[in-house]
Specification:
The chain has about 130 residues and is mostly helical. It contains five helices and no strands. This is CopG family transcriptional regulator.
Length: about 130
């Protein structure tokens, strides 16, 4: 898969794979490492973040993850025009703002912004207004 301009599965995942000890390591990979038992002290991860249950809900101030490996995936179908708009936004971010991000990152940021707006503004949020056709 292409790393530049991909769907969030290119360089982002390759970077996470190249840095297995990074903070963005998935719970699954950390658990597998514990289960393999790489020597004395291999069970020292018990009680670590990998064993804690995942928190539910989003804090309005929580930022999207950015460049890290993601455990979950969804498929979203968009029109050709929406895809072109997304690609145009990626090129504008790179050319005019110096931000080299992939389309997946843009989508995660947009989702985070819209969900934070929904949580703080409720019925007056842009999402509710657009879905109601106002």
């Amino acid at each position: 898969m292409p790393a530049q301009g991909g769907d969030g599965e290119g360089a982002e995942h390759a970077a996470a794979d190249a840095e297995p000890g990074s903070a963005g390591e998935s719970r699954t990979r950390g658990t597998e490492r514990s289960a393999r038992g790489s020597g004395p002290g291999a069970g020292a991860q018990e009680g670590s973040a990998a064993d804690r249950p995942r928190k539910r809900g989003r804090s309005p101030s929580r930022r999207p993850s950015g460049r890290e490996r993601h455990d979950e995936k969804i498929t979203v179908y968009v029109s050709a025009e929406e895809l072109m708009d997304l690609e145009h936004a990626r090129l504008v971010l790179r050319g005019e703002h110096g931000l080299a991000v992939d389309r997946g990152r843009i989508v995660r940021e947009a989702v985070a912004v819209v969900l934070a707006d929904l949580e703080t503004r409720g019925d007056a949020s842009i999402l509710v207004r657009r879905l109601r056709g106002r």
